[in-house]
Design brief:
- It holds the Pfam family Nitroreductase.
- It is a single chain.
- This protein is an alpha+beta fold.
- Helices cover 36% and strands 14% of the residues.
- Strands 1-2-4-3 form a four-stranded antiparallel beta sheet, sandwiched between helices.
- α3 runs antiparallel to α6.
């Protein structure tokens, strides 16, 4: 069932302030590392993946691929190629999803937009997870070659991130140094990232 996000959560209020009117969904979405052991219902997981699949893509090529791990056996394979730091916390997430993209179009031509499109799909996934009352955290620290071999992925696929998905847990379950980072991050001012006309 979808949880409509209408107001900024108390946790977010002290860390995030938008300069302009924007849906609270965008502020409430952040990337915690503390996960609860509660399982994610297949219905919710499928809805999250469905949302990702409706992202726009160049020529509607839909180059993204999502490799899902949710059983103990599947998760163990993913845990092996996560970086050492990420193993500390991500192994508690009940679902891990590897996001990859096909670097070739169906006719064999290079797809210069594949990574851009896969990134958009990840954004859709993250927002739908928030609407479902779940957390999603993208992990860049993993061994891509090991993952590609372990998951039998085609050579032409580029691997982008492993997404940890689950219900947010208590930060006390994390080691002390990581607990300190368990807050919604702020953003640079809009004027620092928006350029009108041309770069000066």
């Amino acid at each position: 069932m979808t949880h409509i996000v209408e107001q900024i959560s108390t946790e977010v209020q002290s860390h995030r302030n938008a300069e302009h009117g924007v849906s609270s969904l965008f502020l409430n979405r952040w990337s915690p590392r503390a996960f609860d052991s509660r399982k994610v219902a297949d219905e919710d997981l499928n809805a999250i993946l469905e949302a990702a699949h409706w992202a726009p893509s160049s020529f509607n090529d839909q180059p993204w691929r999502f490799v899902v791990a949710k059983t103990e056996e599947q998760l163990a394979v993913f845990h092996n190629f996560l970086g050492e730091f990420n193993q500390i916390w991500a192994t508690k997430a009940p679902v891990l999803v590897l996001v990859a993209s096909d670097t070739k179009r169906e006719n064999g031509d290079p797809n210069g937009a594949h990574a851009f499109d896969a990134g958009t799909a990840w954004g859709y996934l993250a927002l739908e997870a928030t609407l479902k009352g779940l957390a999603a955290h993208a992990i860049g620290g993993f061994d891509r070659q090991q993952a590609k071999a372990a998951l039998n992925l085609p050579e032409q696929f580029e691997l982008h991130a492993v997404i940890a998905i689950g219900y947010q847990g208590d930060k006390s379950s994390l080691p002390a140094p990581i607990q300190e980072r368990e807050v919604p991050s702020g953003r640079k001012s809009l004027s620092e990232v928006v350029i009108e006309g041309s770069y000066k």
